[in-house]
Write a structure and sequence with these properties.
2 copies of one chain form a homodimer.
Chain A lengths: L15 E4 L2 H7 L5 E6 L28 H22 E11 L4 H10 L3 E10 L15 E8 L10 H7 L8 E4 L23 H11 L5 E4 L6 H8 L3 E6 L2 H13 L5 H4 L14 H5 L8 E3 L5 E4 L5 E3 L2 E3 L1 H9 L6 H4 L1 E4 L2 E4 L1 H12 L1
Parallel strand pairs in A: 1-8, 2-3, 2-7, 4-6, 7-8
Antiparallel strand pairs in A: 3-5, 4-5, 9-10, 10-11, 11-12, 13-14
Helix pairs in contact in A: 1-2, 2-3, 5-6
The structure holds a DNA duplex (19 and 19 nucleotides).
Catalytic activity (chains A, B): a 2'-deoxyadenosine in DNA + S-adenosyl-L-methionine = an N(6)-methyl-2'-deoxyadenosine in DNA + S-adenosyl-L-homocysteine + H(+)
Protein name (chains A, B): site-specific DNA-methyltransferase (adenine-specific)
Pfam family, one (chains A, B): RAMA
Chain lengths: ~375, ~375
DNA sequence: AGGACCGATGAATCTGGAC
DNA sequence: GGTCCAGATTCATCGGTCC
């Protein structure tokens, strides 16, 4: 194992690049310990003879006379085993991202579903500068597909909705992401000036994945580490990473790369707080604290009146109950957010009751 | 069989809507007789409860009986059978298009490969106006996936490279297609003014498919005909169609629609594409792409400093939010164009962040 | 006539914490 | 584990009405 920055957290070898077959190494790590897995597995079986069975025996069918069905079988066996090992490692609310092209992504997607993973979204990385199709026999292959899945249907995976919305300038993030391919200064070269890895992923892609589906301190595993883009972005963003890579040349490039990466400071890593994370304020507290008086009138958007009662419930005609229940009753709606629905009068002006909730929350920060 | 426009070509019931189960009907047609199949099968959506918009209106979901399958096993059996029947019908150089979402497309793609179909491209239909994710729990589901495959690896499928290039303003057509969903006047309604079919596809999508991968006079089969978009566009473009549809209500709507369709003149095919507006660039993309670093300082015209956060928001004193919001806060102004307001330092010089936006836009034109 | 405003709606695996 | 209920959540487009 390469342990230049060796450290341990909860028995996990975090911030290291582990040497070996990804399935074996994953099976050696403790069950239910990983928050997120990002996997960019190989699929170019014809050109790369580096695919091995779980028992490490060499696969002949791949570089032998090309037999589509035999090779799909081999690829499916490989996919099944590493996805199984990955699922064992995930915490119950953990999640996985896989990336691929039409050569392999359908097989990965089907196997994810077969194993009980629950697909949350498929995401299209739309390349702003793809390689053209020179022979004019196909469409320009201008995208790759990612699949984001939780460990099971009833899991509660991390999703930083607000942070992604901010990244997209206030509009909810879509399932198609326009990002350039990795080239220029970001593209790692070996000593001969050749690209160090054929499929190095752009850091921007991992930035979006990690901002959106992990929190600072989370442990992110990449079983096909390559040049370590996942590790580099994880380190910048204050996440822990574990990389697995069997090729020494890639481990070396990745380790050197990681040594140059610096973590962003804490303030920069803070992202927009979701409203759901803010402390709950019972409406009754406004009455207890005298911000609203029992008997005082609240006004609906359509001018209907409800009276505040001493226990923090409302009464309006036949309807009585919480601010939400009475609002829903007046609107004949299945639900209603009473905080944004009701207003009251102060000094001749009409004010939302949510202003009072914000006052209480502001005090709680002191 | 509905044979209002009954005709025969090479023993094929062309330009008709056939009644019945698509597998049985396909098996009754002659082997090796079809040039192109376009298939929009049930997606096997698995919806639980109702979904309401934030304004409390209810989403009219796809809950039709024909979209219900008991298990992946049942869906896979169905997929295997209709793809097998489809492959028997194709001419040796014929091709197939299938469309789906992440619920079913991985299973279709894997089965296509298993049966010996050869995938030519996967194509992303990027919806310009998708339905948002109302609960903020996922990414906006903003695309669907099509797979274009030939009958076998050594086939020579029709591909009208030049025609697609023309459709794309002289640039090689990519594998991601931006098209609006089908609504407005094109969306077929039933007598009650409700949508006639829950998943009617836009004609523009079929236009591109048929222009790109068929020739005039080709026979196009759609085994899940629905409201007959495939037939309508085929007729307009001078292709023959065969539709199979087991729901009488859909057959009726489709037949009526087809009776109104007229074949285009050749000139009518030429369309002028309006100049696109400048693409919107989210500020967060500058951060994801490393053009600005989390923690880096931006400078206002009056020398005030704001720090960039990892989600593309700024923080300056008490103010936090988008580049526009923080700029407006510092100026006590109702609004502010952050792009022209903020600057940063590079190599000792002060540069407007708008320069970075222009860089990104320049790349997007490639 | 034209612009502002409002309501409707689209293939969706769409909540979470307390008790 | 089930039940209850607070309360958080939307973008682009079309078509109709109002000013």
């Amino acid at each position: 194992m390469t342990k230049s920055n060796a450290s341990e957290a909860n028995g996990l070898p975090v911030n290291q690049i582990l040497d070996g077959d990804c399935i074996e190494v994953m099976n050696s790590l403790p069950e239910g310990s990983i928050d997120l897995i990002f996997a960019d597995p190989p699929y170019n079986l014809q050109l790369k003879g580096d695919l091995h069975r779980p028992d490490n025996s060499k696969v002949d069918a791949v570089d032998d006379h090309w037999d589509q069905f035999a090779s799909f079988k081999v690829y499916d066996d490989f996919t099944r085993e590493w996805l199984k090992a990955a699922r064992r490692l995930l915490k119950p609310d953990g999640a996985i991202w896989v990336i691929g092209s039409y050569h392999n992504v359908f097989r990965m997607g089907a196997e994810l579903q077969n194993q009980g993973y629950w697909i949350l979204n498929d995401v299209i990385w739309r390349k702003s500068n793809p390689m053209p199709n020179f022979r004019g026999k196909r469409l320009t292959n201008a995208h790759e597909t990612l699949i984001w899945a939780s460990k099971s249907e009833d899991a509660k995976p991390t999703f930083n909705y607000e942070a992604l919305k901010e990244l997209n300038e206030g509009i909810q993030m879509r399932s198609d992401w326009v990002l350039p391919i990795c080239n220029g200064g970001e593209r790692l070269k070996n000593g001969d000036g050749e690209k160090a890895h054929p499929t190095q992923k752009p850091e921007a892609l991992l930035h979006r994945v990690l901002i959106g589906t992990t929190n600072p301190g989370d442990v992110v595993l990449d079983p096909f580490f390559g040049t370590g883009t996942t590790g580099a972005v994880a380190k910048m963003l204050g996440r822990e990473f574990i990389g697995i890579e069997r090729e020494e040349a890639y481990r070396k490039v990745a380790a050197e790369r990681l040594s140059r990466v610096r973590k962003f400071d804490r303030e920069a890593l803070a992202t927009t707080t979701p409203k759901r994370a803010q402390p709950r304020v019972p409406f009754g507290q406004l009455v207890e604290r005298g911000m609203l008086r029992p008997g005082e009138s609240l006004i609906s958007p359509r001018g209907q009146i409800a009276k505040v009662r001493a226990d923090g419930t409302l009464i309006s005609g036949e309807a009585r109950g919480s601010i939400h229940q009475v609002g829903a009753a007046l609107e004949s709606a299945p639900s209603c957010n009473g905080w944004t629905y009701w207003q009251f009068k102060r000094d001749g002006k009409t004010v939302s009751i949510d202003v009072l909730r914000q006052q209480i929350r502001a005090e709680m920060h002191d």
